[in-house]
Model the fold of this input.
Amino acid sequence: MHDHTHIASAKHKSRNFDGAWRKTPGRLFGTGFVRLYQLTLSSLIGNSCRHLPTCSEYAYEAIARHGLWAGGWMGAFRVMRCGPWGTHGIDRVPEALGPRYRWFTPWRYWHIGRKA
Done:
């Protein structure tokens, strides 16, 4: 006889970042926009991401963790790296950004997640 009690006690995991994050207006707008894309267009033009987590999941987490400006740039650059000759594999959102990543130097976000 099998015991299935662990199934009932398991927490439902979202496909997006479920950690704690500040719910500022910019972050809510950005994550809402990504979620709208996931619910509508993703099934039509998505399903071909070469990374794990997918590009939309990455963008959602980046915006939730680092705000609309930094997370938006990180998500945009991640989508650009996802082309046929781009990077692939596991690419996690950094928990914290170093001092070189400033709001006035958005081009530096391109280097986050690139293979050395």
